[in-house]
Amino acid sequence: MSNSYIDNFNLNAFRVLEAVFEEGSASRAAIRLNITQSAVSAALAQLRNAYNDPLFVRTGRGLKPTLFCQQIYPFASESLNQAKKTFELYAGRKGLFEGRTITVGMSDDFEIALGSKMVEMARELIPGGRLRFRQTNSLFVSDMLINRDIDLSITAGGINSELLQHESVGSGTYGCLIDPETFNSPFGYESYILHEHILVSFGGFFGVVDEVLGRRGARRFIRVSTSHFAASPFLLKGTDSIITMPRHAAKSIAAITSLEYHECPIAYPVYPVELGFRRSAEKDPVIRKIVATLRSHLAELL
């Protein structure tokens, strides 16, 4: 490629090269760059003509880079990273953050427990920007990250793609809520079995409580079920029922209502709390800054 050719070359094509290389898909690269798939194809065609190489070949798992593409990718990616660093210099004047929206996917138990604290973090980390919370769970989180519906995720596992990075940032278990004004029995294993329960479950029929009790040869009576933890205080207030939910959410609800928190009278499993994001997001200084802060402080917020 001669210097005169570079003068007439659309350098945005290298952004397409990087995106297709890292995503392994033209359609995902288009979503990542917020352009049409035909624009991705046109950029690849320009690069293929310039280098006289197919650059990518189609396989059953997507687009695989050729040997030549693997050789030029590090140079193209590093050049783009150097250009991005010029914008990081602007970050001190809020320019990098102004109007930026970071979308965090999590279930509402994490939003109840972490939401307000994360807003305070964001005020310091992304001045001029804002957070956007979206509902997700371990069943949907991988697809939502890959499809760029969310930028980051906080879930109890569920990430299973080589395009994504995830790391354990803490652990969770379960706790109980009652209304002390209407729950007139001593709280313990016997009352836990005898009293009605409110089930919070995505499926609405069965939960971890039923699994643990079943192994003990016991069962509970479920009066009502809901798929959202946010409804719990309204369903529980004025009843003698019990709700078992993730401990971080139960404690947060008890802290701002008249409901009372209790440790569960039986042992429930401990599960990992994972922070997830796209591997390509590590090149985004804003995402990188938020991930570093959550990595350091999320465990203490749980």
General description of the model:
By secondary structure, the chain is of the alpha/beta class. The chain has three domains: 11-92, Arc Repressor Mutant, subunit A; 101-172 and 271-301, Periplasmic binding protein-like II (D-Maltodextrin-Binding Protein, domain 2), CATH 3.40.190; 174-263, D-Maltodextrin-Binding Protein, domain 2. The chain contains twelve helices and twelve strands. Strands 4-3-5-12-6 form a five-stranded mixed beta sheet. A five-stranded mixed beta sheet has the order 9-8-10-7-11. Helix 6 (108-125) links the parallel strand 3 and strand 4. The chain is elongated and about 85 Å long. The mean pLDDT is 88.
What fraction strand? 15-25%
Number of helices: 12
Helix and strand run:
HHHHEEHEHEHEEEHEHEHEHEEH
Major β-sheet strand ordering: 4-3-5-12-6
Major β-sheet annotation:
5 strands, mixed
The coarse overall form would be: elongated
How much helical structure, as a percent, in the residues?
A: 40-55%
Q: What is the average per-residue confidence, as pLDDT, rounded to a whole number?
A: 88
Q: Which ranges are low-confidence, i.e. pLDDT below 50, for 5 or more consecutive residues?
A: none
Please state the second-level CATH architecture of the largest domain.
3-Layer(aba) Sandwich
Distance between the termini: 55 Å
